[in-house]
Amino acid sequence: MEILKKYFELTDRQVDQFSKLSDLYAFWNAQINVISRKDMDNFYTNHVLHSLGINCCIEFVPETRILDVGTGGGFPGIPLAIACPDCEFVLIDSIGKKIKVVQEVVDAIGLSNVTAIHDRAEKAPGKYDFIVSRAVTRMNKFIPWVRNKIAQEQRNSLPNGILYLKGGDLKEEMSEIHQDYDIYELPEFFEEPFFETKKVVYVRMV
Predict the structure, then answer these.
(1) What phi and psi values does residue 111 have, to the nearest 5 degrees?
(2) Which end of the chain is more exposed for a tag (fewer CB within 10 A), N or C?
(3) How far from 63 is each of 60, 81, 162, CA to CA, in Å?
(4) How is the chain split into domains, by residue range?
């Protein structure tokens, strides 16, 4: 928990919600294995703070609609939803047992700005200002899944698009797409060794 306070100013409610995550995920992970078991020792760094790296690249304005594709156990969507209570989040995954964990966690911490859906990304209802995800697939495969889910109306400092948590050398992968993009290096925001090669890739979609 303390590592979150190191980088972000949190309200009492946010501290309470974030502090409950570790025990909740330890409980559900023992049953369903939504997170690598060895990662649970570094849960707040490797999962929660990593998810919040997106918040270092953009400050979502109230009422921003965000779709988390392939959310798995709820990352990056649940940490972002806690951090951005005035925004609306839809978390979607094609694996039902993972969405069950998401719904249980959302209910346990009282997150009212999250909808969890068991389905494929293409079936997500409505339009969104941003699509977020964490290394689900290569970008040239990901973009067709979500191309028709982007709203045209702008309300944030960045034009609507994709905010994708990735790691490693992305030159080859990003050469395969034809949209404008920027890469934010997470070591510019977080000093922990885990983030040495971690990035947020922003792809403009409108």
Answers:
(1) -85, 115
(2) C
(3) 8, 12, 17
(4) 2-204
Residue 19: strand, helix, or coil: helix
Collapsing DSSP to helix, strand or coil, 86 comes out as: coil
Q: How far apart are CA 88 and CA 65, in angstroms?
A: 5
Residues 6 or more apart in contact with residue 16 via CB below 8 angstroms: 109
Of 3.40.605.10, 3.20.20.140, 3.90.1150.10, 3.40.50.150, the CATH number of 2-204 is 3.40.50.150
Q: Kindly list the averaged pLDDT for each block of 10 residues, start to end, along the chain of length 206.
A: 95 98 94 84 95 97 98 97 98 96 97 97 95 92 95 96 95 92 97 97 95
pLDDT value of position 167: 93
Q: What is this structure's pTM?
A: 0.97
CA distance 153 to 130: 11
pLDDT score, position 181: 96
Distance of CA 189 to CAs 127, 195, 198, 199, Å? 30, 9, 11, 10
Annotate 112-172 with DSSP letters as a single string.
Answer: -SEEEEES-GGG--S-BSEEEEES-S-HHHHHHHHGGGB-S---SSSPSEEEEEEES--HH
